[in-house]
Amino acid sequence: MGQRSVYPRTALDDLYARVESFWPATAADADVDHKKQVLALAQERLKTLQDLPALTSYFFAEPSEDRSLITENKQLGKLERSEIDQLIAATHDKLEQVTDWDAEHIQTALNELLEETGQKPGILFSLIRIYTTWAPFSPELPATLALLGKDRTLSRL
């Protein structure tokens, strides 16, 4: 998680050409523009080209639920299931109200949600990331949600 990408300064078109054979199979029918948007978002976390499927598969297909991402997390594992359900429901309701679905407006809504719930960012944002990606890590949360799209984000919550 704290490791730096070896590709952060690589031009996107050059990197896109290099990763052609590394996309997850579910990305096969995705258009080039969408794949470039996903790659631009994942580029900072990309350590090796082989990391691409793990970093991006949830953009192309519904992820499989992995509750161990919550139960084995030091902070999240302390939460009761009912508290998690309440936080996810509050998140759904808050994000449903966002009319301009972009990273800036999503970040504003998430910041308001922190105040409304009194929750710490590390807990609330981790839960949102997990429920929307079912991945142990993802690129920046507001940008990830923006690229997933409002309908997909809300249905996953």
In short:
This protein is 55% helix and 0% strand. With 157 residues, it is an all-alpha fold. It has 2 domains: 12-59; 68-156, Orthogonal Bundle (Arc Repressor Mutant, subunit A).
Your description of this structure?
The protein has 157 residues and is mainly alpha-helical. The chain has two domains: 12-59; 68-156, Arc Repressor Mutant, subunit A. The protein is built from nine helices and no strands. The model has no long low-confidence stretch (mean pLDDT 92).
Uncertain parts: none
CATH class of the largest domain: Mainly Alpha
The value of Rg in angstroms is 16 Å
Write down the overall geometry: globular
Query: Can you count the beta strands?
Result: 0
User: Mean of residue pLDDT?
Assistant: 92
Distance between the termini: 24 Å
The number of helical segments is 9
Enter the CATH topology name of the largest domain.
Arc Repressor Mutant, subunit A
Biggest sheet layout: none
CATH architecture of the largest domain: Orthogonal Bundle
Backbone structural class: mainly alpha
Number of domains: 2
